[in-house]
Design goal:
Number of domains: 2
Keywords: Cytoplasm, DNA-binding, Iron, Metal-binding, Repressor, Transcription, Transcription regulation, Zinc
Shape: globular
Subcellular location: Cytoplasm
Structural class: alpha+beta
Bound molecules: zinc ion
Binding site for Fe cation: 139
Organism: Larkinella terrae
Cofactor: Zn(2+); Mn(2+); Fe(2+)
Strand content: 5-15%
Strand order of the largest sheet: 4-3-5
CATH topology of the largest domain: Arc Repressor Mutant, subunit A
CATH superfamily of the largest domain: Winged helix-like DNA-binding domain superfamily/Winged helix DNA-binding domain
Distance between the termini: 59 Å
């Protein structure tokens, strides 16, 4: 596994090459956004990234953040996920260089995102691809359910008790 400094260096080189090839502007904003993405370990949306840039006092427009994210997805430096949770219009992004293919688990109560790797997914992809003569390029797999995080369990329990109480009042 690469350390984060050499990972960022590799990502910069890759982005540089891609922008050159596509004749796109190699602006410092794009590289700053790339570095912010590679400093994070979470699944974030474009707005969160925009806010994080501003917290670092990096003046960059929303449009640049959105547009750069699309560029990073196109050159496979960032993976875009559609989790289809309560706000499924939002895409959630994560860095992809130096990371294994993985699938996600999402808690329907606290919206925590967890990851898992299982080599059988690759096997399914190959088998189904061969069987149906279909070239599989990517996949998306999300498990929804309830996590066992203590804070989440406590909050869910409190919410249920509150709902029961409300019900009791109106009955
Ligand atoms: Zn949870
Ligand atoms: Zn992930």
């Amino acid at each position: 596994m690469l350390n984060s400094t050499s990972l960022i260096a590799e990502a910069r080189t890759k982005l540089e090459g891609y922008l050159l090839k596509k004749g796109l502007r190699r602006s410092s904003e794009r590289f700053a956004i790339l570095e912010e993405v590679y400093s994070r370990d979470d699944h974030f949306d474009a707005e969160e990234l925009y806010q994080a840039m501003h917290q670092r006092s990096f003046a960059v427009s929303r449009a640049t953040v959105y547009n750069t994210l699309e560029v990073l997805v196109d050159c496979h430096l960032v993976r875009k996920n559609q989790f289809g949770d309560e706000d499924n219009t939002k895409s959630r992004f994560e860095k992809s260089l130096g990371r294994q293919q993985h699938a996600h688990l999402i808690c329907v109560n606290c919206h925590r995102v967890m990851e898992f790797c299982d080599p059988r997914l690759q096997l399914i992809k190959n088998t189904v691809g061969n069987m149906l003569q279909f070239h599989v390029e990517s996949h998306s797999l999300v498990f929804y359910g309830e996590c066992s995080d203590a804070a989440c369990v406590a909050r869910t329990k409190a919410a249920a008790e509150h709902a029961n109480l409300q019900e009791g009042k109106t009955a």
